[in-house]
Write a structure and sequence with these properties.
The complex is a heterodimer of chains A (about 300) and B (about 525). By secondary structure, chain A is mostly helical. Chain A has a two-stranded antiparallel ribbon with strand order 1-2. The termini of chain A are far apart. Chain A has 13 helices and 2 strands. In chain A, α1 crosses α10 (about 225-235), α6 (about 145-165) packs across α7 (about 165-175) and α10 (about 225-235) packs across α11 (about 240-265). Chain B is of the alpha/beta class and about 525 residues long. In chain B, the strands form 5 sheets. A 6-stranded mixed β-sheet of chain B has the order 7-8-9-4-10-11, with helices on both faces. Chain B is globular, with a radius of gyration of 25 Å. Chain B starts with a helix and ends with a helix. The chains are: A mainly alpha (about 300), B alpha/beta (about 525). Chains A and B meet through α7 and α8 of A and α3 and α4 of B. Chain A: One of its GO terms (cellular component) is plasma membrane. Chain A: GO terms for molecular function: transmembrane transporter activity.
């Protein structure tokens, strides 16, 4: 059974789905919260790259990968806070600021990260669920990274918080009707600032995964647009954190398709299969939207739906 | 025993509010000048006035959105300082806005909870639901609690807004035109219930309105504003409708209405055959709409907003695709594109003209030329535009339709609402009109503009144009239309010549009855 190429591809895609989905998950959860408050932060790509760099650097300098994760989160929060602060100035467009911060974050990461390309930093160790199976391929696939579980818990917590806490209701109110929020004496700018900051924190942690677990080193081509795809992913999971998990897994599985096929000797069209997540993004966006309908579930204050 | 006498005997929860010499100046504009009104506790007080008379400035000063330049406010006889909406909340003053302040994606229960100043950090939904249900049981009207507000009807939203004020224990509530989105029956039901609450001393209401019928039927007292000043008022019953109208309008000259010319039988010009269309969420907005409009006839479409009228207008003006059905003009199939509108002489006056029929940042002259810029004399060779004849044509239209604008090159968005509507009217009516599609043409305009615009519509009818008039203002339809159609839930539920129906049966059809 272990020699069945179909089984091999399936196992590889399963492992890949969990591995590749983790950064998507963190970025999309962060973006989900930000968009729920009525703003779009396209800068999360830059936050992701900067988070990856800072996690790697701190892990290398301190010897503790978890300290690296914390550093990535904090640097992400700073980027989020910067976006949130600039957007509250008059006549500022959140999308333009997002693009500027995307370039700024990547550029800053490349600048500070030059000296960390060579050295090897301590990485996050996987949690081994191999004891659940006797199949050697499955044993490898069940080496699951701890951040994936953190992401799952975060998704559940966000889903719960958006319904059952004051903060969640206020965020949703601000994202759906700023006028209402103001009439109730809520500071729209403050809510959005906080949501963007927390969103940046989450995206930074996604970056830590890239440099500290998979691929597990720091270089300038690390992200390849995953931060941007996560934004698309939020739209097609209709601003629902639980759906974000499913969407991230789907994108992860698509991303693992190329390497999985290569592992059973199908190298034809390798680059084409590697582009699967991008093609999937495009296909899903076309299939799930319509020129005649407005997006269902979209926060009313988003500049793309207004 | 009067309400104030009752207050001295046994304290009632309703609050009395008084403004003294309230004045608000915005730069060069005096929006409110020395307005003193007194709202007795446990009464329903009406605030009458035209658009721009200062009603909303006054209530915004009372609610702390604006700081009055001069003047003070008293709540229950004590001087009250309201610096922001939070202060107003603390004093148990509340307001229901004309534009709903409910969050569409939140459920009614979530909207109520989040509006509470002491909303708990973590919400125990089981306990809160029990409390909310107990609260609802004591209320005169009921709204489903667990569906998103977006799926409630306009009437239910309005009720929920009022419930929210009561849930928050507000004892003085300002209602801004609360019945504008309700059917006449719903309006009567709601005002009756609110009147009951004020009579029992549970609540004091200050209601902004411009419907005299509501004032005479439900209000205890009335104050009338014009151009920022208090120009009249008193107890209802002691002041006649004619006196109220005179105080509200002042000595503005109102254009004489055109008489309705009597026509012989005329051919059908506009025919809608089984129109189907969907709204933005993909749900049916129009279902099997059939309608014929003859030459020299105004067909009025009545209905509460959100029952498919705007979808119908959008379909006829090319802003929304048809799912099924055909439109015919003079028996020829009509696609709402510019060329065919031009060929078949179809024109339209849309609601919110600045959004639907003008380009806000283009000049008045350019906006007036939107139908003619590609024809001589403005255009030569079909592509070369000359600004001179464009300005020339605009100057003529500005004079003929009395548009008040500093120049032909002023961006149209700088004009007042009435003048934007007149400019669009000038563009649409200056040519030879066979079909005229009109939607809420007088919304938010002052009496003089309203009279002007209604006269123009009537003149087009008398000239022989087929006019389709969609209006949320039933009085407008009763005044102008030859036949009335009522839309409810995307269907036409009633079709009748104007002389053979009345307010009651139209209201019944608006609520979906056949």
């Amino acid at each position: 059974m272990s020699d069945d190429p179909f089984f091999t591809v399936a196992v590889a895609m399963f492992a890949g789905a969990i591995r590749v989905s983790t950064p998507f998950l963190f970025v999309s959860l962060g973006e989900c919260l930000t968009e729920k408050s009525g703003r779009i932060n396209l800068g999360l790509e830059g936050t992701l790259v900067f988070g990856a760099m800072s996690a790697y650097a701190i892990s290398y300098l301190s010897g503790s990968p978890w300290l690296g994760v914390a550093a990535a989160g904090c640097s992400g929060a700073v980027f989020g806070a910067l976006h949130g602060f600039i957007c509250k100035l008059p006549k500022v467009n959140d999308i333009a600021i997002g693009i500027a911060l995307m370039l700024f974050g990547s550029g800053l990461a490349f600048f500070f990260g030059k000296s960390f390309i060579q050295p090897t930093a301590p990485r996050l160790s996987a949690i081994d669920f191999g004891f659940l199976t006797s199949n050697p391929q499955m044993k490898v696939a069940l080496q699951i990274n701890p951040l994936f579980f953190v992401g799952l818990v975060a998704a559940l917590a966000l889903w719960w918080a958006l319904r059952n806490t004051r903060f969640g209701l206020v965020v949703r109110m601000t994202g759906d009707s700023a006028a209402t929020a103001r009439a109730m004496g809520t500071s729209v700018d403050l809510v959005r600032f906080l949501a963007t900051t927390i969103g940046g924190f989450s995206a930074g942690i996604g970056g830590a995964f890239l440099s500290l677990y998979y691929p597990g080193s720091w270089n300038e081509g690390l992200s390849s647009g995953q931060g941007l795809m996560a934004v698309a992913l939020v739209i097609f999971s209709r601003w629902n954190p639980i759906a974000c998990v499913a969407a991230a897994l789907l994108f992860g599985a698509a991303g693992a398709l190329g390497p999985a096929l290569q592992s059973v000797g199908i190298s034809q069209g390798y680059h084409f299969f590697n582009a699967a997540p991008h093609i999937l993004t495009l296909a899903i966006m076309i299939a799930s939207t319509s020129p005649k309908r407005s997006l269902k579930g979209a926060p009313g204050e988003l500049s793309i739906t207004k | 025993m009067t309400a104030s006498a009752a207050a001295t005997l046994a304290p009632i929860p309703a609050l009395g509010v008084e403004t003294i010499g309230m004045t608000k100046i915005f730069g060069p504009l005096v929006a409110l000048e020395d307005v003193s009104i007194r709202v007795e506790p446990g009464t329903l007080h009406a605030l009458l006035g035209e658009n721009g008379a200062g009603k909303s400035t006054l209530v915004k000063c009372m609610m702390g959105f604006y700081q009055p330049t001069r003047g003070e406010m008293r709540v229950d006889g004590h001087e009250a300082l309201v610096k922001n909406p939070r202060d107003a909340m603390r004093l148990k003053l509340g307001m229901v806005y004309q534009h709903f302040t409910l969050v569409p994606s939140l459920t009614a229960a979530e909207n109520l909870i989040v509006s509470r100043p002491d909303c708990p950090a973590v919400i125990d939904w089981r306990a809160e639901t029990r409390t909310l249900e107990a609260f609802m049981a004591t209320m005169p009207f009921w709204v489903p609690l667990d569906v998103p507000v977006a799926s409630l009807s306009a009437g239910e939203k309005q009720k929920l807004e009022i419930l929210k004020q009561l849930y928050l224990d507000r004892r003085f509530v300002i209602l801004d035109e609360p019945t504008s989105v309700l059917t006449p029956d719903e309006a009567d039901e709601m005002l009756g219930l609110l009147k009951g609450m004020t009579t029992r001393g549970e609540l004091t209401i200050l209601m902004i309105t411009h419907k005299f019928r509501e004032v005479t039927a439900y209000a205890d007292a009335v104050s009338i504003l014009r151009r920022g000043r208090l120009v009249g008022g008193g107890r209802v019953g002691e002041i006649s409708v004619a006196e109220m109208a005179r105080a509200m309008i002042g000595d503005t000259e109102i254009r004489e209405r055109s008489a309705r010319a009597v026509h012989e039988a005329r051919p059908t010009v506009l025919e809608l055959a089984a129109l189907y269309a969907s709204d933005d969420a993909g749900l049916p907005a129009l279902t099997s709409v059939d309608l014929k409009v003859k030459a020299g006839e105004i067909v009025g479409i009545a209905g509460v907003s959100g029952n498919g009228q705007s979808a119908l207008i959008e379909v006829l003006s090319g802003q929304r695709d048809l799912d099924d059905g055909r439109i015919f003009v003079h028996g020829q199939p009509f696609e709402p594109v510019r060329d065919e509108m031009d060929r078949l002489k179809v024109f339209s006056l849309q609601e919110e003209p600045l959004r639907n029929s003008a380009v806000p940042r283009m000049s008045v002259a350019e906006n007036m030329a939107l139908r003619t810029f590609d024809k001589p004399p403005i255009s030569s060779l079909g592509w070369w535009l000359s600004p001179h004849p464009m300005r020339e044509a605009a100057r003529e239209l500005i004079a003929r339709y009395r548009v008040k604008t500093p120049s032909t090159d002023t961006p149209i968005e700088n004009l007042s609402g009435g003048n934007v509507q007149r400019a669009v009217l000038a563009r649409e009516l200056s040519g030879d009109v066979d079909v005229l599609i009109v939607a809420n043409p007088c919304f938010g305009l002052d009496f003089a503009s309203v009279a002007e615009i209604r006269t123009q519509i009537m003149e087009q009818r008398n000239r022989g144009a087929a006019v389709l008039l969609v209006s949320e203002d039933l009085d407008e339809i009763l005044e102008l239309a030859d036949r009335v159609a009522v839309m409810s839930g995307g269907r036409i539920t009633l079709m009748s010549p104007i002389g053979e129906t009345d307010r009651a049966s139209i209201g019944h059809a608006m609520a979906g009855g056949h």
